[in-house]
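Database export, one record per block. Field names are fixed; values are copied verbatim from the stored entry.
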Amino acid sequence: GKDRIIFATKEDHETPSSAELVADDPDDPYEEQGLILPNGDINWNCPCLGGMASGPCGEQFKSAFSCFHYSTEEIKGSDCVDQFRAMQECMQKYPDLYPQEDENEEKSSKDLEATSEEVSAAKEEKGSS
């Protein structure tokens, strides 16, 4: 396949690293610019996006977010439904990376409440006999 496994030996770790660290470029136009760059473009490198622009659904996210950002509709983004739908469909394929908030969480807490009520009722019945 495409992956290659390399084992490091004790000797490998004893040799000093030859990696060079590059100092931050004070002229980097993306550094600490926020979500929108001075020219009005979207800063896809902004940490505020939480990596959404580079995940497996990055292209769908960029398409939907760009559409919303540049939307001139009366209800901003109302012309972007298809892009957001495509992004959502992609994210549903990767539930581990993009957890969905759904009824399951509510259901779990309701089940817990019901179970605790049943336990309390059973204790009362036992105590009254």
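Remark 1: Residues 51-100 form a domain with the Helix Hairpins fold (CATH 1.10.287.2900).
Remark 2: Residues 69 and 77 are 8 Å apart (CA to CA).
End of record.
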